[in-house]
Design brief:
Elements (H helix, E strand, L loop, with lengths): L1 H4 L5 H5 L10 E6 L5 H14 L4 E5 L16 H10 L1 E4 L13 H8 L4 E7 L12 E7 L9 E5 L2 E4 L5 H17 L4 E6 L7 H13 L6 E6 H10 L6 E4 L1 H15 L8 E3 L5 E4 L17 H13 L3 H17 L13 H10 L4
Parallel strand pairs: 1-2, 1-3, 3-12, 5-10, 8-9, 8-10
Antiparallel strand pairs: 4-5, 4-11, 6-7, 11-12
Helix pairs in contact: 3-12, 6-7, 8-9, 10-11, 11-12
Length: 358
């Protein structure tokens, strides 16, 4: 189930738009990130090499000076690398809080127009949680909503923060969600909203979803209010399949879903843009308290890397790495501390390499 669930986010028909050849060496942008990022990125590179994945890494590092063009530490060089290669993998990044700088993650998504965040969320074989039946996809609109970054102080002590919903962005992400469901054998799409309160903004989002669903009569469609959705997810996550939603709700619900399967350390993520541009990422934090102590869990970055390989049409390599990661977790001997074990990053990495199938 897990392999099928982590199918490529765009399928090979879309991959062919970029002209990917079968096993030709290709360059991928790599952002090691901050905190534990460099450690899990190093482990990922070693495992990819052991799996003989035909990847050449072009490492990009975020600087310490804000770029005035983006008001972020993400530079034009960083962005151009992803645009040139068409594909990237990113470790966790930290943005200084309260300094007036734009979020690093938000900058990458908005500047690269990575409009859809896709997070598969599935119960992992051999790793017991409160739920055994989680098998869903969250698709989050990535470029607007409450995260548009339009804020100002009206008068001292009164701040206005604007939520932006547009027909173009809503239709685009709805189309992606239904297309994803169709191409990956999914049966239902749920549009998550708060249109009972934000009648115009979320009302427009729902209107776009309803228009798109008319082109996919084979896909069941439903709408769910965001707070009720959170309750239903905790009661019975099996009632959901593909979920599409505006930016803020997607941020919250995708993390909630990660909690159902064991946490963000087990959750892969992909950001998809036009012309098959993609940036996969580990969405957990930088964990500065354990950085440099060989304790970090590289699973999220590895599974995101597996999604990346499938997105590039390298299904065999993606499957090998994913299966080795899941086998290592299921065996239980080399789990890291966040999974209840005592293994180091190095021990986990070596176990994954040892479990790579021929």
């Amino acid at each position: 189930m897990y392999r099928r669930a982590l199918a490529s986010v765009a399928r090979e028909a879309l991959n062919n738009q970029r002209g990917y050849a079968s096993d030709a060496l290709r360059t991928v942008t790599l952002f090691p990130g901050d905190g534990i990022g460099p450690e899990i990125a190093a482990a990922t590179k070693e495992i990819f090499a052991a799996a003989k994945a035909p990847i050449k890494w072009e490492e990009q590092f975020v600087g310490t000076q804000a770029d005035p063009r983006t008001n972020s530490f993400v530079s034009r060089e960083n962005l151009d690398s992803v645009l040139k290669n068409g594909i990237g993998l990113k470790g966790p990044m930290a943005t200084p809080i309260g300094k007036g700088h734009r979020s690093l993650n938000l900058t990458l998504r908005k500047e690269l127009q990575l409009f859809a965040n896709v997070r598969p969320c599935f119960s992992i074989p051999g790793y017991k949680t409160r739920y055994d039946n989680v098998n869903l996809i969250t698709i989050r609109e990535n470029t607007e909503g409450e995260y548009s970054g339009l804020e100002h102080e009206v008068v001292p002590g009164v701040v206005e923060s604007l939520k932006v919903i547009t027909r173009g962005a809503s239709t685009r992400v709805a189309e992606y969600a239904f297309q994803y469901a169709k191409l990956n054998g999914r049966k239902k799409v749920t549009a998550v909203h708060k249109a009972n309160i934000m009648k115009k903004a979320d009302g427009l989002f729902l209107e776009c979803c309803r228009e798109v669903r008319e082109r996919y009569p084979e896909i069941e469609y439903e709408e769910a209010i965001v707070d009720a959705t959170c309750m239903m997810l905790v009661k019975d996550p099996s009632r959901f399949d593909v979920m599409v939603m505006p930016n803020l709700y997607g941020d919250i619900i995708s993390d909630l879903c990660a909690g159902l399967i064991g946490g963000l350390g087990l959750t892969p993520s992909a950001n998809i843009g036009a012309n098959n541009l993609a940036l996969m990422e580990a969405v957990h934090g930088t964990a500065p308290d354990i950085a440099g102590h060989d304790k970090a869990n590289p699973t999220a970055l590895l599974l995101s890397g597996s999604m990346m390989l499938r997105h590039m049409g390298l299904h065999r390599h993606g499957d090998r790495i994913q299966d080795a990661v899941l086998k290592t977790i299921a065996q239980g001997k080399y789990r890291t501390a966040d999974l209840g074990g005592k293994a180091s990053t190095t021990e986990f990495k070596k176990a994954v390499i040892g479990n790579l199938a021929d």
